[in-house]
Amino acid sequence: MSEPSCSRRPRTPRANGTHLALAKIRIGAFPIMRWYRRRGYTIAAQNEPLVFATRHGLTSCDDGSDGYQLAAKALQPGTALRRTARAGNPLILLERDT
């Protein structure tokens, strides 16, 4: 007799293949930012874009200039978020470790 499906342990986003976790944090909410930082998230500066690859090429997102900042975390082994600049503009890039 098999176990009921409700007793199975739920799969995590990482186990399901998710590569990136994103959150929006209100500007100036320093205790919330600290909570995310302690859990390995990178906090983007205001209007700093986050660039990542999809099946269709590179995609970017930013905070939308709506009073919030992005917090992001790479979930898959072998990937990392790196702060860099392209054409003089700062950005956060999700890339594979080499």
What does this entry show, briefly?
The protein has 98 residues and is mostly beta strands.
Content-based structural category: mainly beta
- Chain oligomer state: single chain
Strand fraction equals 35-45%
Shape: globular
* Helix coverage percent: under 10%
Distance between the termini: 47 Å
Which sequence of SSEs, written as H and E, runs from N to C?
A: EHEEEEEE
Which strand order do you get reading across the main beta sheet? 4-3-7-6
Uncertain runs with pLDDT below 50, 5 residues or more?
A: none
Largest sheet report: 4 strands, mixed
Number of helices: 1
The tally of strands reads 7
**Overall mean pLDDT:** 87
CA-based gyration radius: 16 Å
Describe the structure.
- The protein is globular, with a radius of gyration of 16 Å.
- It starts with 19 loop residues before the first strand and ends with a strand.
- A four-stranded mixed beta sheet has the order 4-3-7-6, with no helix packed on it. A three-stranded antiparallel beta sheet has the order 1-5-2, with helices on one face.
- By secondary structure, it is mainly β.
- The mean pLDDT is 87.
